Amino acid sequence: MEKTYKKPLPHIHGETKAYWDAAKRHELVMRRCRCCNEYYFYPRDFCPSCFSFDVEWARVSGRGILYSFTVCHRPAQGFEEGGPYNISLVELEEGVRMMSTVVGCADEDLKVGMALEVVFDDVTEEVTLPKFRPPAP
Ligand SMILES: [Zn+2]
Ligand SMILES: [Zn+2]
Prior knowledge:
The chain is mostly beta strands. The protein is 8% helix and 35% strand. It has one helix spanning 14-24; strands at 29-33, 39-40, 55-59, 63-72, 85-92, 97-100, 115-122, 128-133. A 5-stranded antiparallel beta sheet has the order 6-5-4-7-8. Strands 2-1-3 form a 3-stranded antiparallel beta sheet. The mean pLDDT is 93. One zinc ion binds at residues 33, 35-36, 38, 47, 49-50, 52.
């Protein structure tokens, strides 16, 4: 665990707390609407498709594919250390797309459509970030 994590940390509050609590347990959870059965991200207390408040938390597999990505050579503030990094849009098996980053793979080897699985990075005592990596063969 990095003791001096300098990058920005998520602002954790009501609608997202269960998501971050699950990440700390190394579980990936998504909101799912009981009305239309869709998963969605980011976590909100209502379904963005049908606006129902009849929604639940559901653990997801953590498997997905790289839907889109960009390699950032001019880092945003707070991300200066460690050189270029990728910002990746991952599409989970459950159909949701989430912004994350791919680790364990050189940026030049990233390919749209490649298989990914979630991995949990305990960046501080309080915060664990879900990231993705190519699955072990
Ligand atoms: Zn807030
Ligand atoms: Zn819905």
